[in-house]
Each structure stands twice: as structure tokens, then as C-alpha cells.
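Entry:
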Amino acid sequence: MNSWSVLDPAEGYGLVKVFPNYEEAENWLLEDEYEPLEGRLSSSEIHANI
């Protein structure tokens, strides 16, 4: 099963919330007025940068 995680780079990429699909994650981010960034990171890219 795929899931989408929202991570906070200001907190060492700590987990903020997990969603079952991209649309729910996007809606949650838009409702909370987060600024969109271009691109995505895979979990291996995040773990390599911590």
C-alpha cells in the first residue's frame, strides 16, 4: 500500500502527517495554507541528507 508523508525540513524532516493518497495530502496542505515547493524527495534522498 502506498502512502504520502508530510515531513518538516525545519525539524530535521520529522513526520508531520501521513495520508493514504496524494489528493488528501494536497488538500490538507492547501487548507493549512502551506507554500508549495517544486519537486519531491524520495525517502532515500531524505535519509541521505539527515
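Residues 22-31 form the longest helix (10 residues).
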